[in-house]
TrEMBL record:
Enzyme Commission identifier(s): 6.1.1.4
GO BP terms in the entry: leucyl-tRNA aminoacylation
Gene: leuS
Record protein name field: Leucine--tRNA ligase
Enzyme class at the top of the EC tree: ligase
HAMAP family found in the cross-reference section: Leu_tRNA_synth_B
GO terms under cellular component: cytosol
Length: 805
């Protein structure tokens, strides 16, 4: 008889909920904080891709719980965001109601999958009780000088009335347009909030070394931070304007034949000569149409304009022309470079196009292109004959001695643009006085909640939709009329600290104060996160922002751990049966609800964990899903209507203890597919025996291990075996090393020291028996036949060597 997954799953989900079995305990000496990247509660519900990562953390949480850890395994909602706002815009509904409805759907789905989340700790980033603390953290950042208003070049779409992120903009026919709708986009300078993550660049780099993260993600973060050590050198124009360039190759200064400034560089107008000015102006305008990605793209032809000015190379004293070109970015280094076309491919391309001088200062054999390798210096006066390191040391010494240059470290990392002209995000706890001063809303008046309004369209002026809500914007502080900030925070604000919010809650969205003593004690107990599972797509954005905030909270003395996520694991994707990424447009999306209906949550979970290594991206297979259900039925049949033995006949000792040991190690290392294989091995072993002779504790050990993957069926079997309470908090099975000594060995049969055969035999056979076995081997017999046996050497449990002549 097959088991009824529908009835069993419903029954146990109800019991778990009523008994609150997944409630976080906090009384043991070991803890495990096991975290999922929380979902954005979209209108389309949970995806089988979510199920993979969430099942893996569920398996691991159940494992740690049975091992006697206090386990924190929460879930919540990354609830602010553009889709809800756009839905609201197009339907006239409130994004809040829409989001809450989606959350209910998501929560139900998670429950039907049998996930052991502690729902008491649920949080929602868009809940005022949550974003009260988001605002509080912003206030701390502001007080620390880590948040400031800055004039920023943003992508502005007049037609959409909003600023767009770089990835919402594309280039069509050479101009920037919005990805949605294809409306023209221009660069525009606007006052925006930025968070100075760059101030933490060094700490964020150093912290990476301490983390158990995939090497690929560490590399991505390292490159994103992009530390570059070089020299800032002063070049003076003939009219006396100081132009500072940043270079990592100060040693090539004898080959610097021109300078290039970013078109936006503040000195451009100052130095451009009158007859070059109009060309310069036109070029600057063209640059405004270009995205940063475009400008960094080395496959695009180089463009640029001569300013008419010359600068003096401070070492060679030569006058060299000053150009502007968009391949030099204004916000990196000093926005100006000394061009060394002989040894930099971009400069080479530029110099050949515009007929500028090229001077080799490294001894390159091939002078038909830029030489970027290592070679001795030439044409470089006192640097001649030196290698790169020595030359760099010497030139820096001289530049510093003559006050012409200083050592400089630059980072590719940009400060974090923190303003959005959107309705559905956290309001800033900020106001402006009439004379333009910035004030923070008093902490006791937090949260600053979003107003109830149906008017959430972009204002069209570049201001946030909130600017339309006069009664919300205009307030009084200390008797003075002031105006609130109307931008909102980006979606990544809430996700930068949500993992701390779980620790602060005992009931959904009821957070204790983050700066309270109780909060500190709780953080000390639970932080850092011991295992964080999520997709690789968050490698830089979210994971860098959250690390930044965690470092700041550490510096504020609120946290005792600098780094929030000790171990990170990226689960692979589940592709469609066609091997393509699941997407509505391919029509290859599998809905977990359908699978739960047809095969049950346990089969779905088991299948997803068994399909291959957790970090591999693999296609969905219904055959695999069928096989998972079939195996669960095989398990059920063995135990249903069976009475097992209360005495151990020891027949299964080895395989049982071997499997327990392997599963324990494999789950610990997240090798979940091979752990399941081991459970299958054990099941096959059980099936070799008359069920009534199988030792019941071995069946129970098996059921506990099964519970990680198929918790509903495991509970059902547990109760069939006569237990009255849930197995969620049962102790993990232990293995006995003494049972793991193999009972057989493989003996090598040799003739004159050459291997002629092998045989698996019982351990501890005596000399005579071993020799007899060797001689009865057909192949051995061939080599000793009609020969005189001189000697018979036996190494017990290993080798029998027969010497003949
Ligand atoms: C002279 C030179 C000679 C350079 C040479 C390279 C090779 P990192 O920091 O590793 O990316 N550079 C500096 N500021 C720039 C800017 N704002 N936009 C575009 N390019 C810029 O590399 C620093 C090098 O990139 C600097 O060293 C500079 O070119 C260029 F054989 O200076 B170099």
């Amino acid at each position: 008889m097959d088991f009824s997954h529908k009835a069993i799953e419903k029954k146990w989900q109800k019991i778990w909920k009523e008994k609150d079995v997944y409630q976080t305990t906090s009384n043991k000496d070991k803890k495990a904080y096991i975290l999922d990247m929380f979902p954005y509660p979209s209108g389309s519900g949970l995806h089988v891709g979510h199920v993979k990562g969430y099942t893996a953390t569920d398996v691991f949480s159940r494992f740690r719980r049975m091992q006697g850890y206090d386990v924190l395994h929460p879930i919540g909602w990354d609830a602010f965001g553009l889709p809800a706002e756009q839905y609201a815009l197009s339907t006239g509904n409130d994004p809040r109601e829409f989001t809450l409805k989606n959350i209910d759907t998501f929560r139900t789905q998670l429950q039907t999958l049998g996930f052991g989340y502690d729902f008491n700790k649920e949080v929602n980033t868009a809940h005022p009780e949550f974003y009260k603390t988001t605002q509080w953290i912003f206030e701390q950042l502001y007080k620390l000088g880590l948040a400031e208003l800055r004039d920023i070049e943003v992508n502005w779409s007049q037609d959409l009335g909003t600023v767009l992120a770089n990835d919402e903009v594309e280039i069509k026919d050479g101009i920037m347009v919005s990805e949605r709708g294809g409306y023209p986009v221009v660069k525009k300078t606007m006052k925006q909030w930025v968070l100075k993550i760059t101030a933490y660049a060094e700490k964020l780099l150093a912290g990476l070394e301490t983390l158990d993260w995939p090497q690929s993600v560490k590399e991505l973060q390292k490159n994103w931070i992009g530390k570059s050590e070089g020299v800032e050198i002063s070049f003076k124009t003939q009219t006396g304007v100081d132009l500072k360039v940043f270079t990592t190759r100060a040693d090539t200064i004898y080959g610097a034949t021109y300078l290039v400034l970013a078109p936006e560089h503040e000195a451009v107008h100052l130095i451009s000569t009158s007859n070059q000015l109009s060309e310069v102006e036109t070029y600057i305008k063209q640059t405004k149409q270009k995205s940063e990605i475009d400008r960094k793209d080395d496959s695009k032809p180089k463009t640029g304009v001569f300013t008419g000015a010359y600068a003096i190379n401070p070492i060679t004293k030569e006058a060299i022309p000053v150009w502007i070109a968009d391949y030099v970015l204004n916000d990196y280094g000093s926005g100006a470079v000394m061009a060394v076309p002989a040894h930099d491919p971009r400069d080479w391309e530029f110099a050949t196009k515009f007929n500028l001088a090229i001077k080799f200062v490294l001894a390159a054999k091939d002078q038909s292109k830029a030489f970027v390798g290592e070679a001795k210096h030439i044409n470089s006066d006192f640097l001649d004959g030196l290698d790169r390191q020595e030359a760099n040391r010497k030139i820096l010494e001289r530049l510093e001695a003559e006050n012409l240059g200083i050592k400089k470290i630059n980072y590719k990392l940009r400060d974090w643009l923190f303003s959005r002209q959107r309705f559905y995000g956290e309001p800033f706890p900020v106001y402006y006085t009439n004379d333009g001063n910035i004030g923070l809303i008093d902490v006791k008046d937090l949260p600053v909640t979003l107003p109830q309004t149906s008017y959430i369209k972009p204002s069209g002026t570049g201001e946030s939709p909130l600017a339309n809500v006069k009664e919300w914007v205009e307030i009084e502080v200390n008797g003075q009329k002031v105006k609130r900030e109307t931008n909102t925070m980006p979606q990544s604000a809430g996700s930068s600290w949500y993992y701390l919010a779980y620790i602060l809650t005992d009931q959904p969205n009821q957070l204790i104060d983050l700066e309270s003593e109780e909060a500190k004690a709780r953080f000390n107990k639970w932080m850092p996160v011991d295992l964080y599972i999520g997709g690789q797509e968050h490698a830089v954005g979210h994971l860098l922002y959250a690390r930044f905030w965690n470092h700041v909270l550490y510096d504020l003395g609120i946290l005792k751990t600098q780094e929030p996520f000790q171990k990170l694991y990226n689960q692979g994707m589940i592709l469609g049966p066609d091997g393509k990424k699941m997407s509505k447009s391919w029509g290859n999306v599998i809905n977990p609800d359908d699978v739960i209906q047809s095969h049950g949550a346990d089969a779905l979970r088991l299948y997803e964990m068994f399909m291959g290594p957790l970090d591999a991206s693999l296609p969905w297979s219904y055959d695999g899903l069928d096989a998972a259900l079939k195996w669960l039925n095989r398990v059920f049949r063995l135990v249903n209507n069976t009475t097992f033995s209360t005495t151990n006949n020891q027949e299964l000792d080895f395989v049982y203890h071997d499997v327990v040991k392997k599963v324990t190690i494999m789950v610990d290392e997240l090798k979940l597919n091979t752990a399941i294989s081991q459970l299958m091995v054990l099941m096959n072993a059980f099936y070799k025996y008359e069920p009534s002779t199988i030792y019941q504790p071995y069946i129970e050990g098996f059921v506990k291990m099964l519970a990680l993957f198929a918790p509903h069926l495991a509970e059902e079997i547990w109760s069939i075996l006569g237990h009255e309470t849930s197995l969620v908090n049962e102790a993990w099975p232990i293995y006995d090393e003494t049972k793991l000594i193999a009972s057989t060995v493989t003996i090598a049969f040799q003739v004159n020291g050459k291997l002629r055969g092998t045989k698996e035999v019982a351990i501890g056979l005596d000399k005579e028996t071993l020799i007899k076995l060797a001689k009865s081997d057909e192949n051995v017999d061939k080599f000793i036949k009609n020969k005189k046996i001189v000697k018979e050497i036996v190494i017990f449990d290993k080798i029998v060597n027969i010497v003949v002549n």
